[in-house]
Amino acid sequence: xxxxxxxxxxxxxxxxxxxxxxxxxxxxxxxxxxxxxxxxxxxxxxxxxxxxxxxxxxxxxxxxxxxxxxxxxxxxxxxxxxxxxxxxxxxxxxxxxxxxxxxxxxxxxxxxxxxxxxxxxxxxxxxxxxxxxxxxxxxxxxxxxxxxxxxxxxxxxxxxxxxxxxxxxxxxxxxxxxxxxxxxxxxxxxxxxxxxxxxxxxxxxxxxxxxxxxxxxxxxxxxxxxxxxxxxxxxxxxxxxxxxxxxxxxxxxxxxxxxxxxxxxxxxxxxxxxxxxxxxxxxxxxxxxxxxxxxxxxxxxxxxxxxxxxxxxxxxxxxxxxxxxxxxxxxxxxxxxxxxxxxxxxxxxxxxxxxxxxxxxxxxxxxxxxxxxxxxxxxxxxxxxxxxxxxxxxxxxxxxxxxxxxxxxxxxxxxxxxxxxxxxxxxxxxxxxxxxxxxxxxxxxxxxxxxxxxxxxxxxxxxxxxxxxxxxxxxxxxxxxxxxxxxxxxxxxxxxxxxxxxxxxxxxxxxxxxxxxxxxxxxxxxxxxxxxxxxxxxxxxxxxxxxxxx
Length: 550
Fold this sequence. Notes:
Helix content: 25-40%
Radius of gyration: 40 Å
Number of helices: 8
CATH class of the largest domain: Mainly Beta
CATH architecture of the largest domain: 6 Propeller
Strand order of the largest sheet: 10-33-32-31
Shape: elongated
CATH superfamily of the largest domain: TolB, C-terminal domain
Mean pLDDT: 86
Distance between the termini: 102 Å
Largest sheet: 4 strands, antiparallel
C-alpha cells in the first residue's frame, strides 16, 4: 500500500470529476472530492456509505452487483451456469448448483494474466522485433540488387541505337513490375509483423493495469490474445531474378530476364537512306483510294488516334472521347472534365489525353482515368505524341498564347524542352493554334506550326533540320493542321485550306499530294497498324480510311 508521503507526491483525482480526492467511500470503493460526496450518497440512497478521509481508506475487492437481486453483490460464480451469483441466487434460482469462490477465481486469473504478460513482453515481442529486422534487411538487399540491375541495363543501353529503346523499355517495365510485386510482398509481410508490436505493447500495458486493479470484473472479463500473438505470420522469402547479358562488342547483345529474351545485332547502314527514299516513291500508289467512310457523330471532329487495325479514338469539342471501329460502331467511351486538347495512344493501346484548363495529361487504364503529369504553372498542355521509347511529347502554350514549346516527359520527369534554336530564337511561333507533332522512326520530331503556316522538323536533340512551307507542292494558302509519319519514315501533312494531304520524305522533299479522296477540311490524322491513313474531317465529323501505298 502506498504511504502518505507518496500520496502527497501524486495527486489522485476524484472518480466523479477531475478535482483532487479528499474522501473515500469504503463501502463503494470510490474516491471523492468534497463537492461530490453528497452526489454519491444521493445517487445510492439505499446503500450504507462508510465515508472516511482518503488517507484512512480501506481497500477491498469490488465484487459485481447482482443483476437479479438489487443491493446484493456476487461473491461466487455458478459452475453450472457460468455466471456470477449472490447469496439469494444460491437459494433460488441456482439452488443445488456447485459454486466457486469469486476471490479464488480472481487470484487464479491474475496469476494467468501475469504469466501471459511476461511471455508476451519477454519472449514474443523480441521475436517479432528480430523478424522485423530480418525483413528490413531483405528489403534493403532487394532494393540494392534491383538498383544494380537497373544500372547494368542502362550501361548496355548506351551501346545501342535509339531504335532498340523499345526493347529496353520492355525490360525496364518487367524489372519494375517484378520489383514492385516483390517489394510489395515484403513490405506487406513487414507491416503485418511491425503493426502487431504496438498492439502487443498496448496489451502488456493494459494487462499491467489490470494486475494493479482490485476490480473483479476487470480481471474476470479479461480476454486473452496470447494465441493470436503466438501465431506469428508465416515467414516468406523472395527470389530475385537475374539479368543475364552477353556482348559481342560492336556486333551483338543478348539479354535475358526470366522468360523475356532479346538479341540485338548491328547491320551496315551504308546507303540505307537513299534506298529508303527510292523505295518510298515506288511504294506510293498512283492514286490513293478511300476504302471506308466512318460517321463518328463528333462535330466538329478534331483528333483521331488509331488503335491497331480497325479502331480509333476520336474527339471534338465535348467531354467524351469515343472509340469507333471501321464500321462506325462506338466500342467504348472515356469522359473528361473538359474537352480534350489532344489525344494519343501508347504502344500498349492505352488512351492518353490532355486537359488544358486542368493543366494535366491523363491516361485511361481499364476504364479508370489516372493523371500522368501536371504541367508547370502558367503553361497549359495541348497536343500529344507517345514515342517509341515510351516518352510523351506534350506541346504547351502560355495563358496569352504568345509562347509555345514542346516538352518531352519520361514518366513524371521533364527530360527535354524544345523551344529555341541554336541562335536562341523561338523555333515555334506564338498564336491561336496548337502544335501537332509526331516522332519519326529516325528520331526526328515533326511539328505542324499552324501559326507560322510551316512544318518544322527537328532532330531528337532539338536542332532544326528543315522547314516545309508547301511551296514545292505549288499549293496556295498552305495551312498544315496535323502531321503523322509512316513505316517508311515518310511525313504526311493534313492541309486544311487545300483539302488535301502532302507526303514528304524524311528529309523534307515533296513526293506526292493526295487530293482525290474528297477530303473536305481534313483535321485529325493517324496511321493504323496496316499503314492506312485515317483522316478526320472537321465539319462533317466523318473519318475517311485511305490506302495510299501498295
